[in-house]
């Protein structure tokens, strides 16, 4: 339905997006994941015809939108990273204002606003002035604004940045519900692995303007299928034990935290006996040794050598 073809954006010397290829099918929730500066916002600005690409194409139902952005603008709801609301107006007044921009009026506008307020859980607070809202409530209202014209596709640019966990869960649940109940197609950008893992059917991972992986969650995790992550817990560590881990040639990576050490080893290697022996020799008592299924966070670390929120 929506396709990015060899899309590139250059800002002077800086190539923010390099030859990006992506597609989004009707009814999917697609995740676009990457750290700060990866090029996510630039990519979605081109997709929604707000920024002109340096080269490449954006196609909606097989037609380029570059010269004719009308059709995509009609069906697109955009939730920007920055909150775009009038602070001195109530939630209701904001929705009325933006609804009129979408050319909704009268009874139709009223019905739509009531529906949106329900969806974002702000019916009880509709008469309150936005500046009295928490960050999470403002974000929810921002999403409500983007939904007023019943968009076929909604693009959310990091909608949970800087809000409390409760509001975050509410937003994630709302996105999931909208997709299930209204078959809304969603492109969700984030730098939180667990959000994308919870929401999305398919995932694209960007880093420094490049697409570094894409596929279903399962396909992406397959990238790590040759390795296991093992977490080792103890009340304290000693240098001898850490030294042994670091010097063991089968162990690929060692990450030491307060009470937990994470190591990465080839899948076929059974480390339990080795770890027990190392602990004994280092005079250390282990609390537990667990093999973890790989997460998307592990995939990112594997592909880039950096944690996602570095
Ligand atoms: N208008 C602009 N002019 C010049 N450089 C820009 C512009 N917009 C983005 N960039 C640069 O392009 C790169 C990608 O930025 P972009 O905002 O797309 O990344 P992002 O993945 O959305 O990151 P964030 O999570 O921080 O929003 C960055 O190096 C940024 O500085």
TrEMBL record:
Domain ABC transporter span(s) in chain numbering: 2-233
InterPro entries: AAA+_ATPase, ABC_transporter-like_ATP-bd, ABC_transporter-like_CS, DrrA1/2-like_C, P-loop_NTPase
SUPFAM superfamilies tied to this protein: P-loop containing nucleoside triphosphate hydrolases
Signal peptide: none
GO MF assignments: ATP binding; ATP hydrolysis activity
The keyword ATP-binding is assigned to this record: yes
Keywords assigned by UniProt, alphabetized: ATP-binding, Nucleotide-binding, Transport
Nucleotide-binding is among the record's keywords: yes
One family name in Pfam for this protein: ABC_tran
Name used for this protein in its record: ABC transporter ATP-binding protein
Species per Swiss-Prot/TrEMBL record: Oceanobacillus bengalensis
